[in-house]
Amino acid sequence: MRHNNKINHLGRTHSHREALLSNMAVSLIQHKRILTTLAKAKELRKYVEPLITKSKEDTTHSRRVVFKKLRDKYAVTELFNDISQKIGNRLGGYTRIIKIGNRLGDNASICFIELVDYNELMLKGPKQAMAKTRRSRKKTETGLERELNSTDFVPQNTNDKKRLSIFEKYATNLMFLKENGFINIEMKYDKTYICPICGCQFSEKSLDQTSENSLTLEDAPPKSLGGSANVLTCKQCNNTCGYKIDSHLVSRMKELDRVKFIPETENDIIVKIDGVTLRGKIKVEKDGTIKILHSIKNNHPLQLGEIMEKVKKDMVIDMNFLKRNVIPENLEYALLKTGYLLFLEKFGYSLILDNCYNLIREQLLNPEKRIYPMGFWFKPLFPREMNGVYFVCDKGLESILVLFTLNTGLSETMFGTFLPLPINPLKDVIQKIDAKIQKEKTFPLTLYPQEQKIADYLSDKGNLAAMYKWIEERR
């Protein structure tokens, strides 16, 4: 009898059932709707909905918990970057089961299971009842009402409102620059946003996350390193750069924390005892005590027991941290991307549309090959208050210096990146700076502006005119 046993084993062993549900969950996340039997759909719903809820909190821990279930990095990326944004204001009930009859042969009940927010027909809702007519004259629509009724995008949640606010800010900046003759560019739409990475133009309708290549919030620095989203990039650039570039920077910064043995941290390790390799965790207590833990789950039970009996006091143990696959060049490009987006945040489109910035865009889109000159980043010993975007005003070294801090939650590290100006090739600037460092060890740079909060390069016509005049004189 199955009293008090609500689990449907689906006629499979535990491991087979877990693999089945994991694969079905991946298919549902990728295709948004799948066809299956009613019994499997009901079990899949209980399996996948907690994972969708987990995706609302975009942290490294949450991603690891979900990846443990799905075992598919592309599905995890799709879930956290796309689906979590779509269902942000839904409290539960993310899936819908639609019965469609019985299957020929075994007469099994079959159905569709889908993500409710991706069924456009169901989202439209019922038609509104016709209003009662009256003999009074119909009121004419005012200009303000007409403007409100013609809005292309209507925000539905907090993220939508933030995307719309950022879109309006930079679309206004682009129009301001064109109207005042600072830039000469043909815009496709009345309100245009240009993706800073690929350079494609987008309208306000692209804020709708159901569109093919929507505009998404972009964190600079990455969110897990203390950054916040103040600019937009297209979905394609966001996903590509996040997976190929940003992940390497995050992994490297976490690795640097591991070797410091910071209290109240826990890290995966590989231990060798008597020639036997074991997997475990090293845990640093609040008082600084270090413990090495081994679990039966990650090691051979009999082998683990035998080895633990041999461990004695003052015994030398070979230990290594479990290394992540970090590509050093991609780590550098993540620093370049962070500096570039912070530069956009401060200066808008006033400079990044110049051809000299094509070098940055090409590098971010092609991290497999070196395009941007080496030596563009460094670790300054400045106070955190120096974070900001500066002009380097020294003759022959004219460039942009972006200073920012990466915060892992356990440590802080400041970085500086050099970006080009349409005055000197950046490669020449970096070579001159390196030569001075080797000759003089230290030398001062003339930076402007010193007061970051006062300088406005988004809507102040006087500041922009002075900037363009200075660049023209230095050419």
Structural features, described:
This protein is an alpha+beta fold and 475 residues long. The protein folds into five domains: 14-122, Ribosomal protein L17 (50s Ribosomal Protein L17, Chain: A, Alpha-Beta Complex); 126-152, no CATH class; 155-246, no CATH class; 248-321, no CATH class; 328-473, no CATH class. It is built from 14 helices and 16 strands. The chain has a five-stranded antiparallel sheet. A four-stranded antiparallel sheet has the order 10-9-8-11, with no helix packed on it. A three-stranded antiparallel sheet has the order 1-3-2. Helix 1 (14-31) packs across helix 2 (38-54), helix 3 (60-70) crosses helix 4 and helix 8 (235-258) crosses helix 10. Mean pLDDT is 86; it is low at 127-134 and 143-151.
Q: What portion of the residues fall into strands of 2 or more residues?
A: 15-25%
The strand count comes to 16
Q: Tell me about the largest β-sheet.
A: 5 strands, antiparallel
Strand order of the largest sheet: 12-15-14-13-16
N→C terminal distance: 87 Å
Q: How much helicity do the residues have?
A: 25-40%
Instruction: Assign the structural class, choosing from mainly alpha, mainly beta, alpha/beta, alpha+beta, or little secondary structure.
Output: alpha+beta
Query: How many separate helices?
Result: 14
Radius of gyration: 28 Å
Quickly count the domains: 5
Poorly predicted residue ranges: 127-134, 143-151
- What is the H/E order? HEHHHEEHHHEEEEHEEEHEHHHEEEEHEH
What general outline do the C-alpha atoms trace?
A: flat
Averaged pLDDT: 86
